[in-house]
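User: Could you go from structure to sequence for me? I need the amino acid at each position, not a summary. Structure tokens:
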């Protein structure tokens, strides 16, 4: 089965300000570089890519994403040739492109691809000799919002609806521990580094709003594999079960764990 593009810019933007906080913290880790060449992997709707472009004073910034819906929205922020967007698989980046970048940036995107050691090695190979890598990933696989989604996906009739391949894996299952990323950065040649786990508390109007949050991100993996009517039933089952777990509370404090990592190379890459 070919997965549909389930990304919805409007749904994603329902919590735009809350989703932007880790981005700005990640940008703050970057060291100044004169007119750098920057690539934003998993650029989404592009407004944060434009903010990254301005913050770094980049001579050129390229945003890459594989969602046609997100790229269509991102095109509104393009200002070629300095700021442009392109379709691509960030897991395969640089995919034969021999260009070098001063900054490889990925905000809330790395979790969507497997084998992070191999992916980060490829991204590092795309850096200049003193290039910087800046990545932010969610680390909340143990939160009820994720555990409940897995539970519902593995129950009837949804398990059968996914077919022989079964439910799509949770992207945050591929996320490593912070100390593993720190060791990996050292192995890749980043002598300067900063790695931290941070809790971003999001005060939602009620616990019901967790569903609206995850519909913009985590639940897209189910939406891309299920017919519309079945996905609608999935969301309703998920909502019911989630409220059984977390309770109906107003407001609801959503404790969202994220890992921020930054590294700067010294000397030419191998």
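Assistant: Here is the amino acid at each position, in order:
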């Amino acid at each position: 089965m070919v997965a549909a593009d389930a990304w919805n810019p409007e749904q994603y933007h329902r919590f735009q300000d809350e989703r932007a906080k880790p981005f700005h913290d990640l940008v703050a880790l970057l060291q100044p570089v004169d007119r750098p060449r920057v690539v934003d992997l998993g650029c989404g709707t592009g407004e944060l890519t434009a903010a990254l472009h301005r913050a770094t004073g980049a001579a050129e910034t390229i945003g890459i994403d594989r969602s046609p819906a997100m790229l269509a929205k991102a095109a509104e922020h393009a200002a070629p040739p300095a700021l442009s967007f392109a379709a691509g698989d960030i897991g395969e980046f640089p995919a034969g492109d021999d260009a070098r970048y001063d900054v490889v940036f990925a905000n809330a995107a790395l979790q969507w691809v497997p084998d992070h050691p191999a992916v980060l090695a490829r991204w590092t190979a795309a850096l200049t000799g003193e290039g910087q890598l800046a990545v932010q990933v969610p680390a909340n696989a143990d939160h009820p919002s994720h555990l409940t989604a897995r539970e519902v996906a593995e129950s009837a009739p949804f398990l059968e609806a996914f077919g022989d391949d079964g439910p799509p894996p949770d992207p945050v299952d591929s996320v490593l521990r912070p100390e593993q990323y720190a060791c990996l950065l050292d192995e890749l040649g980043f002598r300067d580094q900063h790695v931290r786990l941070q809790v971003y508390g999001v005060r939602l109007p009620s616990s019901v709003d967790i569903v609206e949050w995850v519909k913009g991100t985590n639940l897209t993996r189910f939406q891309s594999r299920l017919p519309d009517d079945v996905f609608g039933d999935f969301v309703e089952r998920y909502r019911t079960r989630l409220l059984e777990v977390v309770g109906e509370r107003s407001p609801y404090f959503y404790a969202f764990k994220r890992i921020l990592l930054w590294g700067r190379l010294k000397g030419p890459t191998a």
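One structural detail worth keeping in mind: Residues 16-139+175-203+255-270 form a domain with the Rossmann fold fold (CATH 3.40.50.150).
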